[in-house]
Every structure is written in C-alpha cells, then in structure tokens.
Amino acid sequence: MSQAPIKDNEVDIVIGALRSDLSSFFNEWRAYFSRFHLIIVKDPDLKEELKIPDGFNLNVYTKNDIDRIVGSTSISFSGYSCRYFGFLVSKKKYIISIDDDCHPAKDNKGNFVDAVAQHIENLTTPATPFFFNTLYDPYRDGADFVRGYPFSLRNGVNCALSCGLWLNLADLDAPTQALKPSERNNRYVDAVLTVPTAALLPVSGINIAFDREAVGPALFPALRLAEEGKVRWETIEDIWSGMCVKVICDHLGLGVKTGLPYVWRTDRGDAVESLKKEWEGVKLMEEVVPFLQSTMLPVTAATAEDCVVEMAKTVKQQLGSSNPVFGHAADSMLEWVRIWKTMVSRPS
C-alpha cells in the first residue's frame, strides 16, 4: 500500500550554493520549485552576494547563520557540505536536495522531467528490498509483481531514500573522467528500482530526496579527505554518508530506491587536477566497502541516531588505526548526532 500523499508544506528543497549567481538555475527550476519552501545554504567560503530571482518562498543561510546556530564544532560545512546544514535546520518531514550545477532533464519524448514530483512518488510508494522484482518498481504505472514473487512480501516497506541520476555529466570518479574526458551519459533509462538488502551503493548528494524523520540524522558531512577540494571529484563525504545510511536503512527495515528522476549536469572542475586530490578517496573505498559489508548493528539501535552512534564506535575501533580520516569521521558522526538532537529539541 502506498503512503498518504505528501503535502507541499511537508517538503523542503535544499540547495547548496557554491556559486553566487543563481538566477538561471532558479528560473529553469521555477515550474518545479515555486510550490515548495526552499532552504538555500551559501558556501561559507563564497564571498560574493547571492543573486536569486523573486517569486520563491525561501530562507537563505550564510556563514554567520551557521556559526550562530551550530556554534563551535569540528564539522566543516564548507563546499558541498554546506547542504547538510540545510538538512539540519529543516523542520519538514521530507527533503529534496539538488545541486546548483543541475538543470531539468528531458525524457525520451523530449518533455522536461519534474524531478521533485518523481522523488515524491519514489518516497510515497513502497520499496521492495527483500526480493528483486525483474520489472523493477512494481508500483509504477504499467508494472506489477512478476510471477513467483511472494505475496507475503508484496506490501513492501517504507522508502526512506530516493537517489536520482544524471544526464550529460555522469557522477564518474576522477580517474574514469580523466581517462575518458569526452564521456557523457546520454541514456535516459525510464526505470526505478529498489536497492536490495545488504547491497551497498555509492549515494551521490547531487540529486536525492529522503524522509528526514526516518533517516535525516544518518546523512552527515563526516569523512573528509586530507586534500579535500571544491568540486565533486575531490570529495567523498556523500559517498561515505550514503553507504552508512544504506546500512542503517537495512537495519531499520527501510527501503532505498535509485533511477528516476534524472537531472542534467554541467561541467565543473578539471578531472586531471582533481585526480591528485581524490586518489586518496579511491584507495579508501577498498577498505571502506568490506568494512561496511560486514557491519552489524545491535538490535538495541532502534533509531537513526542510535545507529549512527553505534557505527561511529565501530568505525573508531576497526578503522581508526588504519588512517586518521576514519577517526575524524567517527568523531564527526558523534558530533553530528549531538547537534541534530539539539536542533530537534528547539522550538520551530
């Protein structure tokens, strides 16, 4: 059974502003954003004033707001991590986050895609993580459960995270993009699927939506590379957070979907230069993935906050000695839960 329809006032759209002139971005997304409340978080390192056209219901947060609201903290909200501050201050049940280098995509018929509506559809229809349906999402129009799919599993579970994709500039890593500089993703695959239980995925924060009440505390800016940069190739904070939230969703019996909606991404940065910074992250993944695949959370961890605390302890114990970034990540995860609980306790 699908969940109750999501009301417009239950949604915040969070935009991390890494560039000052957002006029074209907002005008392109006007038809899809204007019904909702928006949270714009300005990169603390961005000096120029933001340029945002009229006609939107929004709040803008700057470095001064971050310092005032969060106070002294070891967590960095610089660069792409500024979006997490938007997750923190939101009071809505659902959050949709789209980067400021993304444009509305077109489907195979040439029609613009309403990414907001598709994310909402993904979150309001059940996920099916325990048994794979070969027609993908059985709740989409024109699809259903295939022969042999157990009826006892057809109710599915609540979907807590929707991971959209990208046309044009796919979210490749720096080595791949450097090796294939002209590689572009032009394939619009009209499909949504649930990621199976126990399968990890590299969640990109570029185009996502999630149930903030269910898993909000599990999306955090924790793992930072020693040579962290300002473009997507030079960070893995969202990859780390995304794999952690998938482990947590599996533990809590929640679902994760990927596929639609697509956005159209434009180029930002130099893959060859970024390779010098991201190579550390590429190597770390060889250690991170086996660790997370074997991570088991205790039954006493009944909320996302509980799960993050337990994962932080395990990260510190099992990975902390292998590389300082893991110890720092564990500390940041605990700090994030502390800040999150403080924010939740504040009146709206």
TrEMBL record:
<dbReference type="InterPro" id="IPR037595">
    <property type="entry name" value="RGP_fam"/>
</dbReference>
<dbReference type="Pfam" id="PF03214">
    <property type="entry name" value="RGP"/>
</dbReference>
<keyword id="KW-0333">Golgi apparatus</keyword>
<dbReference type="GO" id="GO:0005829">
    <property type="term" value="C:cytosol"/>
</dbReference>
<protein>
    <recommendedName>
        <fullName>UDP-arabinopyranose mutase 5</fullName>
    </recommendedName>
</protein>
<dbReference type="GO" id="GO:0033356">
    <property type="term" value="P:UDP-L-arabinose metabolic process"/>
</dbReference>
<keyword id="KW-0961">Cell wall biogenesis/degradation</keyword>
<dbReference type="GO" id="GO:0005794">
    <property type="term" value="C:Golgi apparatus"/>
</dbReference>
<dbReference type="GO" id="GO:0009506">
    <property type="term" value="C:plasmodesma"/>
</dbReference>
<comment type="similarity">
    <text>Belongs to the RGP family.</text>
</comment>
<dbReference type="GO" id="GO:0052691">
    <property type="term" value="F:UDP-arabinopyranose mutase activity"/>
</dbReference>
<dbReference type="GO" id="GO:0071555">
    <property type="term" value="P:cell wall organization"/>
</dbReference>
